[in-house]
Amino acid sequence: NAGVTQTPKFQVLKTGQSMTLQCAQDMNHNSMYWYRQDPGMGLRLIYYSASEGTTDKGEVPNGYNVSRLNKREFSLRLESAAPSQTSVYFCASSRTSGPSSYNEQFFGPGTRLTVL
Amino acid sequence: GENVEQHPSTLSVQEGDSAVIKCTYSDSASNYFPWYKQELGKRPQLIIDIRSNVGEKKDQRIAVTLNKTAKHFSLHITETQPEDSAVYFCAAGTTDSWGKLQFGAGTQVVVTP
Q1: What are the tens digits of pLDDT across the range A82-113?
Q2: B74-78 long-range contacts, Cβ below 8 Å, gap at least 24?
Q3: Residue B104: closest CA among chain A residues belongs to which residue?
Q4: Which residues of A84-95 are buried (b: 16+ CB within 10 A; e: fewer)?
Q5: Which of A43, A108, A109 is the closest to B103 by Cβ?
Q6: How does pLDDT run across B54-71, given as a tens digit for each residue?
Q7: Chain B stretch 18-57, residues whose beta carbon is closer than 8 A to a beta carbon of chain A
């Protein structure tokens, strides 16, 4: 099993450009998450998908959109990139199956994004 | 919403000594408290977690304690080794949050030989 995979690993954008970060998991997990990691700020949730067909905002959703394409794939789109979106982006998944269910989150390798 | 504070932000310990990282949370409905370890350039990985019906949990050299009354939980690493050098994140999960976690800002642990 590959676990959680992300593409690309690195990306440089110019302000105003758009791009989509891809994430896939092969563990048959229900829930998927997108985080950004900035120095001294930990991991902040951008969007999550509790189950296939549902998405919801996290702590820092502004400037981003997501698509839960199917149970395996969850993509993050930046429509008009800004320098403030320079960060490391992590996708994660878990087999969480209910509102009060907690299971280990498995993280992908991350995407390092720089916006000039 | 939930707010998790983590201290210290950096921690330097001699090999063989113990390390303690403390976190506080604000939402009394939080009932799941995992700890993740992130080595340089790598992804975060779960090392231990505790649920609100348990006060302490151990796994070899790692232990976590939870004080629900005071709303704080701690990670204890005994007999530290150079491979324990990493950033450690605490997190809290709240009832009815569909697995969402609120992470602390992280603690950089450096173990010196």
Answers
A1: 999 999 999 999 998 777 777 889 999 999 99
A2: B74/B20, B74/B21, B74/B22, B74/B23, B75/B19, B75/B20, B75/B21, B75/B23, B75/B35, B75/B48, B76/B18, B76/B19, B76/B20, B77/B18, B77/B19, B77/B20, B77/B109, B78/B18
A3: A42
A4: ebbbbbbbbbbe
A5: A43
A6: 899 999 999 999 999 999
A7: 31-32, 34, 42-46, 49, 51
